[in-house]
Amino acid sequence: MRVLFTTHTAKSHLFAQVSLAWALRAAGHEVHMAGQPDLADDITRTGLTAVTAGAALDLAAQMESYEHNEHDGSGDGTVQDPGAWEGTGGADDYRAIAERYEYWTDMTEIRPQKLSYEYMHGVFTAMTTQVFQQYSAPAMIDDLVRHARWWRPDLVVWDPLTFAGPVAARAVGAAHVRLLFGLDLIGRMRRPYLDALRRLPPAQREDPMEEWLGDTVRRYGGEFGEDLVVGQRTIDPLPPALRFLDGPDRVPMRCAPHNGSSVLPDWLREPQERRRVCLTLGVSHRELLGADRLPLGEVLAALAGVDAEVVATLNAAQLASVTEVPDNVRVVDFVPLETLLPSCSAVIHHGGAGTFNTALSCGVPQLILPDGVWDTDHKARLLEERGAGIRVAQPEKADAATLHGMITRLLEEPSFGRAAARLRDESRDMPAPSAVVPVLEELAAGRRPHQRQGEWQ
């Protein structure tokens, strides 16, 4: 069969799809990986065939503009110009707009008492207009549909933030599934939102996602269905103890980490003389903004007195603001985490999907300083509740002494290692990507509207 993957323009989202894409290739199926032109080189470096759709997203410029609004209160960036709001148009108004933007595009709220219809409707309206429509702009959807009509995929596997995928699938009658990279925040809020919507009189029901996706898919001869929001199936890489949602539409799949192209360093093969700790703040944020949101200087100072070798994956830009690197810290620009973490007794990181999932698969206790992006704080909370890590509640205010105590606990208290090993074993009990291939074959076969000569059976 032919399988079209659609990914968001960030390496971590692409990397979350690579193992399944190669499992399908290994099973004899054809695979294309589609995304904006920004990601084409990263796709080809995975060995997969890249398909470009739409204009460059330039996510770095968008995030830089938003960060400028959030911290300086100046510039309009991705939020509405202050002239459209009541007020003086000065810095205070810009800050108010940035705060409103951050509030209404926050899908992390899960407390039932907070999930009123008004709140959820505001979030879905803001996310649809300010985020989802940017990530799947009309030009990208047009290009993707054009490619799908030419190539005729049997199955579309799409990133939860890239709704061009299910639209293209509907346009050609292909089966389609979401592939999560972390917690299902959209599905988690979507269920109570639809329940609240059904309680309203029909004349008052307004669903911004149905309006946008319905209008969009009708341009290509399709009709809206809730599967355009949450997929016909959802592939979930997290072990059951860490999932937000479960049910018959869920397809569990063990995380098989892919951290990018690299060469194994010689020092990693040398005998270890003492415990090892990994410090990583990921690559996506540093490549987009050239900086991190976390107090790197305090983290390094906290590691100075730790009885362990520390491997810190930091580049020159990240180290520019650091006055001193402790003697027990080995700085490397990049090392594949799936090869490094099995030798580590703990990992310190920002909560990104790639690092979090790789640490889970290796059974390594985690100290997480959530950077506030998408689901990082929720994952840290869940991990802490399962006893496999520690969450830093306010990373921007963390000092070296507090962090040193947390790191020491992870290394000295055996309970963290035991809990991390349990989650690792739970993850290993999930089907490997190769075992998910027959599930996807069956789904595609049951929904395929056409049969090509010599097609897979």
Automatic annotation (TrEMBL):
<dbReference type="InterPro" id="IPR030953">
    <property type="entry name" value="Glycosyl_450act"/>
</dbReference>
<keyword id="KW-0328">Glycosyltransferase</keyword>
<feature type="domain" description="Erythromycin biosynthesis protein CIII-like N-terminal">
    <location>
        <begin position="100"/>
        <end position="282"/>
    </location>
</feature>
<dbReference type="Pfam" id="PF21036">
    <property type="entry name" value="EryCIII-like_N"/>
</dbReference>
<protein>
    <submittedName>
        <fullName>Activator-dependent family glycosyltransferase</fullName>
    </submittedName>
</protein>
<comment type="similarity">
    <text>Belongs to the glycosyltransferase 28 family.</text>
</comment>
<feature type="domain" description="Erythromycin biosynthesis protein CIII-like C-terminal">
    <location>
        <begin position="298"/>
        <end position="443"/>
    </location>
</feature>
<dbReference type="Pfam" id="PF06722">
    <property type="entry name" value="EryCIII-like_C"/>
</dbReference>
<dbReference type="InterPro" id="IPR048284">
    <property type="entry name" value="EryCIII-like_N"/>
</dbReference>
<keyword id="KW-0045">Antibiotic biosynthesis</keyword>
<dbReference type="InterPro" id="IPR002213">
    <property type="entry name" value="UDP_glucos_trans"/>
</dbReference>
<dbReference type="InterPro" id="IPR050426">
    <property type="entry name" value="Glycosyltransferase_28"/>
</dbReference>
<feature type="domain" description="Erythromycin biosynthesis protein CIII-like N-terminal">
    <location>
        <begin position="22"/>
        <end position="72"/>
    </location>
</feature>
<keyword id="KW-0808">Transferase</keyword>
<dbReference type="InterPro" id="IPR010610">
    <property type="entry name" value="EryCIII-like_C"/>
</dbReference>
<feature type="region of interest" description="Disordered">
    <location>
        <begin position="66"/>
        <end position="90"/>
    </location>
</feature>
